[in-house]
Amino acid sequence: QVQLVESGGGLVQAGGSLRLSCVASGLLVSINTMGWYRQAPGKQRELVAGISSGGRTNYADSVQGRFTISRDNAKNTVYLQMNSLKPEDTAVYYCNAHVLGATMYDWGQGTQVTVSS
Question: Which one, of 115, 73, 72, 75, lies nearest residue 93 by Cα?
Fold first, then answer.
């Protein structure tokens, strides 16, 4: 059974940084395309960053240049380094594997990121 456990969120002032972690069990992050998603109140969940099995990364325009996705295969963990945070980055952040744009597994509990102005 696949389990995804996100952590690292918190309250930070605008301009600050956070590093999110997603520990996966039941799947290998090294051979899956993994993504970080976020859902703000009243909005749909959106993909903000992805990393392919080959290490290719992609980002939503809104976070390009500020967020960095990476993974540690030995720890089976995916990270999201978030710098220069803005109030509009406030959301619950989740990770998941995806194929052709479709997520593959049940969502974890997510981790709340709140950016104050």
Answer: 115
